[in-house]
Every structure is written in structure tokens, then in C-alpha cells.
């Protein structure tokens, strides 16, 4: 008997048997794994078994993407544009951080560097590490 591991529930075993987690080696496997993740997330009201299984699949996706699809390096302006788009923000939504629309535009166009205060406020707003804005 193995000490420290709990016996998986029948539902967890169903998840594993329906889509066995394996290292992802190509784009087709990546897409299939992502589809499995989305099908579980779409059902809502996730159980602990769902969350545990999703964590395993997420690690497999992360490992594949880290190895085969490295993130491109973004400049501060491009990063901020992407974060604004993802969060559906407009220029005026960032005025509490930048004070004027002209400053926001200058940062977005990589014509102006961020201050330490702006970096910290942006990191807090978007829940990402401040070093990504440096």
C-alpha cells in the first residue's frame, strides 16, 4: 500500500479513462487536450476531481507550449495594448494611473518609459509581476 496517496474516486478514474493524460508531442494533441479542458470548464460547478484533473492537463499544456511555442518578447507598449484589449479597457480607464491621455498614448507607442509608481500600479491592476513592465 502506498502511503500518502488517496484512492481516486470513480469519477476521477472516468476522467482519466476518457482522456488519459499524456505528454503532448504535437499540435493535434495540444488541440485535443485544450478541447478536453474547455469541455470540463464549460460544464461549470467544478468538483475537486475536476480541478485536480484540469491541473494535470494544464501542466501538460504548459510544458508543451513552454518547449515548442515560447512567448514572444513584448515591449512595454505592446504588452499594455494586449492587456488592455484582454481586459476590454479604453485609454480613459488608465487615466488614474497615467493622469493624461497623452501619457497613455506615449507609453503605448513606446515613446515614454514608465515610472516605478506606474509599473507598480499597472502590475496590481492586471495581476502580473512588475518586472514584466521593465
Can you put this structure into words, describing what you see?
The chain has helices at residues 10-18, 27-43, 48-68, 76-86, 95-98, 101-108, 116-126. 60% of the residues lie in helices and 0% in strands. It is mainly alpha-helical and 134 residues long. Helix 2 (27-43) packs antiparallel against helix 3. The chain folds into 2 domains: 10-68; 76-133, 434 Repressor (Amino-terminal Domain), CATH 1.10.260. The model has no long low-confidence stretch (mean pLDDT 93).
Terminal-residue CA separation = 51 Å
How many domains, in number, for the residues? 2
- The number of helical segments is 7
Which structural class fits the helix and strand makeup? mainly alpha
The biggest sheet amounts to: none
> Which runs of at least 5 residues are low in confidence (pLDDT < 50)?
none
User: Share of helix among residues?
Assistant: 55-70%
| Rg (C-alpha, Å) | 21 Å
Number of beta-strand segments: 0
User: What is the string of helix and strand elements?
Assistant: HHHHHHH
Shape: elongated
Mean pLDDT: 93
Strand portion, in percent?
A: under 5%
Short description:
The protein has two domains: 10-68; 76-133, 434 Repressor (Amino-terminal Domain) (Orthogonal Bundle).
Amino acid at each position: 500500500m502506498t502511503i500518502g496517496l488517496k484512492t481516486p474516486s470513480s469519477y476521477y478514474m472516468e476522467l482519466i479513462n476518457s482522456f488519459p493524460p499524456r505528454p503532448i508531442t504535437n499540435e493535434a494533441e495540444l488541440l485535443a487536450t485544450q478541447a478536453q479542458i474547455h469541455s470540463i470548464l464549460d460544464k461549470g460547478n467544478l468538483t475537486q476531481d475536476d480541478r485536480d484533473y484540469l491541473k494535470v492537463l494544464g501542466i501538460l499544456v504548459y510544458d508543451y507550449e513552454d518547449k515548442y511555442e515560447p512567448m514572444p518578447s513584448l515591449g512595454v507598449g505592446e504588452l499594455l495594448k494586449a492587456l488592455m484589449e484582454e481586459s476590454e479597457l479604453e485609454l480613459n480607464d488608465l487615466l488614474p494611473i497615467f493622469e493624461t491621455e497623452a501619457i497613455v498614448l506615449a507609453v503605448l507607442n513606446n515613446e515614454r518609459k514608465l515610472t516605478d509608481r506606474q509599473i507598480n500600479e499597472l502590475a496590481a491592476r492586471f495581476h502580473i509581476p512588475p518586472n514584466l513592465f521593465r
